[in-house]
Structures are given as C-alpha cells and as structure tokens.
Amino acid sequence: MSFLEPSAHRLRRRRADNIFRYLCFAAAGLGVVLLIIFLVKMYVDGIGRLNFKFLLDPLSSRPKRTGIWPAIVGSLYVMALTALIAVPVGIASAIYLEEFNTRRNRFVSFVQLNIANLAGVPSIVYGLLGLAVFARWLSLGSSVITGALTMSLLILPTVIIVTQEALKAVPKTYREGSLALGSTRWQAIRHQVLPSAAPGIFTGIILSISRAIGETAPLIVVGAASYISTLPKGLGDKFTVLPIQIFDWSLDSRKAFNDAAAAAIIVLIVALLILNSFSIFLRARAQKRLRP
Predict the structure, then answer these.
(1) 79 and 42 share a domain?
(2) Are 265 and 242 in contact (CB under 8 A)?
(3) Is residue 2 in some structural domain?
(4) Residue 85 scores a pLDDT above 70
C-alpha cells in the first residue's frame, strides 16, 4: 500500500464530515422551505383583502368590511411609548455599568447576571408583571400606557446588553486619548465612545423594537382589546395591536376573517422588513461617518 493512499481512518473522517455538512445544509434548507411555504400561503390567502380600504377602515364584526386601522394606530402608539421609555433608561444603565462602574464587585456582577437572565424570561411573565403592577396596583387598567410600560420591561434587558456590547467594542485608546487631552469622563463618553458605538446601539434598539412589535402574550395578559372600533386618544384609553388582531381573526371559524388575518400578517411582515432595513441603513451611515 502506498503511503500516499488515504488511510481508512481519514476516509471515515471525511465521510463523517460530508454527512455533517449535508445534514446542516438540509436543516437550513428545511427552514427556508417552510418559510417560503408560509409566505406563499399568506400571500395567496391575504392578497385579495390587501388594499387601502382594508388598511384604513375600522374593525367590524362583518368580515368583508373589517379593517386594521385601529390596530395599526394602537401598535404605533405602544411602540413609540415603549421606545421613549426603554431606550433612554437602557442606554443610561449600560453607560453606567460599562463606563462609570469600572470596579467589578459582587453587586455589579449580581446586576449583570440578572440582566442576562431577564433577557431570556418568557414574554408572558412580563405580561403577568405588567398586570399585577401597572394594571392593578397602579390602577392604570388595560390602557395604552400599561401596554407600553409592560413592553418596555420586555425589551429593556436586551437594550442594556446590546448597548454594553457596543460600548465594549470601542477601543480603549479612544477613551485614554480623550482623557489625556483633558476631557472629563463624560466628555470622553459623549464625544468619542458613544459616536463610535452608535452603529451597534442603533441596530440593537431597532431589532429589540421589532421583536416587541410581534409580541402578543404580554398584551393579551394586560387586557389589550381584541375588538375595538375607535382609536385611542390618550394614554389611558383602551387599545388593540396588530398581533392581537391577527390572533383573534385566526381563531375565527369564518374563512373571510382568516383571509383578513393573512392580509394583516403581510402588513406586519412588511413593517418588520422596513424596520430591519432602516436598522441596516442607520448602521451603514453611522459607520461611513466614522471612517477617516
């Protein structure tokens, strides 16, 4: 036998490597195929209902006349308030933990561990917390502000973690150089660290909000309406959101409502794609501005 001929052991390793590669390819392909099947089915079922009338009409008990305008407005209200609450608190918390509290004591380690754990808590747990604290203890009821506060708790750990990772990615020389020139710690963070970390922070925040847009369980628990024909006029008004409307229509036995749910799913997917594209655009623009 020639010493150039592959050994049986090498052949077995190569065969195992090929099998593993094919299995990974099959798993990835299966996910793509299932996603395509889902999107095609939603398109076939919902495209017939998708028009400006469907987008701008109020909800109705008649499936042919129902629209999603109150759900769209409710989603915009809740997500805007969620961002206004969670983003400043999350960024400020991350800056304190990463930039000002440089000594890693037990308390900081305990806080970091709990933030990481909270990021993995099921969303329905936040719904139960929102129901107990905001809806009942603070007597806010099933209102827009209750939904926004609950969703803020949901995305806050993710915003903190993403911001911390973006701050960690900034080279220490940026901070040291700014401090050496006489800047205070806050001036170094504001003018050097935050602009450099902005692309990662923007991306993480938008992806967190994208996740919140598709959440249903927390808002169902706090009492978001599944049917409401009027728009919320204030923070204390009742509301509905697009995922809850989709969930409610999907459970209906009438096909016309199922088709309306498919059309609403298309709208939700388009909204998520727009948000993700906006995230990519902001990241690319921020990186371009930071290039020398």
Answers:
(1) no
(2) no
(3) no
(4) yes
Are 149 and 263 found together in one domain?
yes
Kindly write down the DSSP assignment for every residue of 46-113, as one continuous string. HTTT-SHHHHHSPP-SSTTT---HHHHHHHHHHHHHHHHHHHHHHHHHHHIIIII--S--HHHHHHHH
pLDDT at 277 over 70: yes
Domain membership flag for residue 187: yes
Q: How far apart are CA 163 and CA 96, in angstroms?
A: 11
Distance between CA atoms of 288 and 292, rounded to whole angstroms? 9
Judgement on whether residues 127 and 74 belong to the same structural domain of the protein: yes
- Could you give the 3-state DSSP secondary structure of residue 27? helix
| 160, amino acid identity | I
The answer on 145 and 124 residing in a single domain is: yes
Structural domain harbouring 38 = 8-46
State whether 39 and 57 are in the same domain: no
pLDDT digits (tens, 9 = 90+) for 35-80: 899 889 888 888 888 888 888 888 888 878 888 898 999 899 999 9
- Residue 243, C-beta contacts closer than 8 angstroms, at least 6 positions apart: 213, 214, 215, 216, 219, 268
Q: How many domains does the chain have?
A: 2
Q: 3-state DSSP call for residue 151?
A: helix
- Of 190, 157, 186, give the one whose Cα is nearest residue 89: 157
Separation of alpha carbons 98 and 119, rounded Å: 18
Please classify residue 70 by burial: count the beta carbons closer than 10 Å to its beta carbon, then call 0-12 exposed, 13-18 middle and 19+ buried: buried
Got the DSSP string for 155-183? Answer: HHHHHHHHHHHHHHTS-HHHHHHHHHTT-
